[in-house]
């Protein structure tokens, strides 16, 4: 049976419930996923004085063929994008600056150091997001950046974050698409602190100084990313969820929820509706924690589907800025991007195909039997037939056909590196 034939039969089943496939497709096409560049080179970046990856973050695996130059990374991203339906954004870190062989420290970075990325984004009809890099640097060696007791170090990182927001603003201006500049810092302590408040006061003051710099919010929006624990900050992280949720609410910034940054049984899907009651927008780093914040490639598991459902059933497709954040160096990195991003888009389509109004009504009526029965039965509705058709309509390979293309790219390009 062809993709078209399967689609026709599947469409009938969904339309029985009043679901408009065409409307679902139109909504889905409008959702940009922010695809993280750092899966392509194991968060190495292109600084002239490239540093070892350090500062509460690590990548495992050594699959051959990783990108080592901006041109290679952009080529690999183009390959992945050719296998992913829709128009998306690429999420950059400051360490991906191109300074033409000149040593430029992070507090001196400027928009011009990302001109090649902007030119490439224009050629490929992409948006760009940004992140200051507050790790893998001598001034982050003791694991303290914006909260460091040494004011000189704090000022260096404050300046870096201000410059980063200006780079985000430059992206927004050049590409006509608001950029998200997200701040994550590794600051915390390996063991039990004697003072949790002072570092948090310093973080608040540092952020106040960073956000006092004048940046056009229509071009760049700011997010702050919380974490529960990290490597070397097992006992205490300054930028906890409570800290950033409070800071973001009070200062009209976006709180960024990384799905790997909570207790193992705590799910981000359950936070979205509550936070959107008090904030116009929020941001996500969709990842997959296995036992801890392991940053595994995103799979279509229950939590990913629940995130898709919460975004769709709360009419929040334009309120939640969906970013991905995983880095697996044990598999082909182009395949990793393709698997994770296609799964994120699948989870949104899955949610768009449910009769969400009817399901809400069942809950309102206290009909929890039908609610459970239908939520379970829809898990085995022919969603795959709709997804395959969507891929073909968007001119990307359906089913696992994309894998052949990755294998050919590996043979012709990656294996030659
Ligand atoms: C590279 C990113 O800034 C990093 O993964 C951050 O978003 C994070 O989640 C750290 O645990
Ligand atoms: Mn993250």
Automatic annotation (TrEMBL):
Protein's organism: Gracilibacillus kekensis
Cofactor annotation remark: Binds 1 Mn(2+) ion per subunit.
Cofactor: Mn(2+)
Catalytic reaction equation(s): L-rhamnopyranose = L-rhamnulose
Annotated function: Catalyzes the interconversion of L-rhamnose and L-rhamnulose.
Pfam families on file: RhaA (PF06134)
Family from the record: Belongs to the rhamnose isomerase family.
NCBIfam families: PRK01076.1, rhaA
Location in or out of the cell: Cytoplasm
An annotated GO cellular component: cytoplasm
Pathway of action: Carbohydrate degradation; L-rhamnose degradation; glycerone phosphate from L-rhamnose: step 1/3
Record-listed Mn(2+) binding positions: 261, 293, 295
GO BP annotation list: L-lyxose metabolic process; rhamnose catabolic process
Domain of life according to the entry: Bacteria
Keywords: Cytoplasm, Isomerase, Manganese, Metal-binding, Rhamnose metabolism
InterPro entries: L-rhamnose_isomerase (IPR050337), Rhamnose_isomerase (IPR009308), Xyl_isomerase-like_sf (IPR036237)
HAMAP family cross-referenced by the UniProt entry: RhaA
Name of the molecule in the record: L-rhamnose isomerase
Annotated EC: 5.3.1.14
Principal subcellular localisation of the protein: cytoplasm
SUPFAM superfamilies: Xylose isomerase-like
DNA damage found in the keyword field: no
Record PANTHER family: L-RHAMNOSE ISOMERASE
């Amino acid at each position: 049976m062809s993709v078209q034939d399967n689609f026709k039969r599947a469409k009938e089943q969904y339309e029985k419930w009043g679901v408009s496939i065409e409307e679902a497709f139109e909504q889905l096409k409008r959702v940009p996923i922010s695809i993280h560049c750092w899966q392509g080179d194991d968060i190495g970046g292109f600084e002239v004085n490239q540093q070892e990856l350090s500062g509460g973050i690590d990548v495992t695996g050594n699959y051959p063929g990783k990108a080592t130059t901006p041109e290679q990374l952009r080529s690999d991203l183009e390959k992945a994008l050719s296998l992913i339906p829709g128009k998306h954004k690429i999420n950059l870190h400051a360490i991906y600056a191109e300074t033409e062989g000149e040593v430029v420290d992070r507090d001196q970075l400027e928009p011009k150091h990302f001109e090649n990325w902007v030119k490439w984004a224009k050629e490929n009809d992409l948006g760009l997001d940004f992140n200051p890099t507050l790790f893998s640097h001598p001034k982050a060696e003791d694991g303290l950046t914006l909260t460091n007791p040494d004011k000189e170090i704090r000022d260096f990182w404050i300046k870096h974050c201000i410059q980063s927001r200006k780079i985000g603003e430059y992206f927004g201006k050049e590409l006509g698409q608001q950029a998200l500049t997200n701040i994550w810092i590794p600051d915390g302590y390996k063991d039990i602190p004697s003072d949790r408040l002072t570092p948090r006061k310093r973080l608040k003051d540092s952020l106040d100084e960073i956000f006092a710099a004048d940046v056009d919010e229509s071009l760049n929006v700011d997010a702050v990313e919380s974490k529960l624990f990290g490597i070397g900050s097992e006992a205490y992280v300054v930028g906890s969820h409570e800290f950033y949720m409070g800071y973001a609410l009070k200062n009209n910034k976006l709180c960024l929820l990384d799905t790997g940054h909570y207790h193992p049984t705590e799910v981000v899907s359950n936070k979205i509706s509550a936070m959107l009651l008090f904030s116009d927008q929020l941001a996500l780093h969709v990842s997959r924690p296995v036992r801890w914040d392991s940053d595994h490639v995103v799979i279509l598991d229950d939590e990913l589907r629940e995130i898709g459902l919460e975004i769709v059933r709360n009419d929040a497709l334009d309120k939640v800025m969906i970013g991905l954040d995983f880095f697996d160096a044990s598999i082909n990195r182009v395949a990793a991007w393709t698997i994770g991003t296609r799964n994120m888009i699948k989870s949104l389509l899955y949610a768009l195909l449910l009769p969400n109004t009817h399901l809400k009504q069942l809950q309102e009526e206290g009909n929890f039997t039908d609610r459970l029965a239908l939520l379970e039965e829809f898990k085995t509705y022919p969603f795959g037939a709709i997804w395959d058709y969507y891929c073909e309509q968007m001119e990307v390979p359906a089913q696992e056909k994309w894998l052949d293309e990755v294998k050919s790219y590996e043979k012709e390009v990656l294996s030659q590196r």
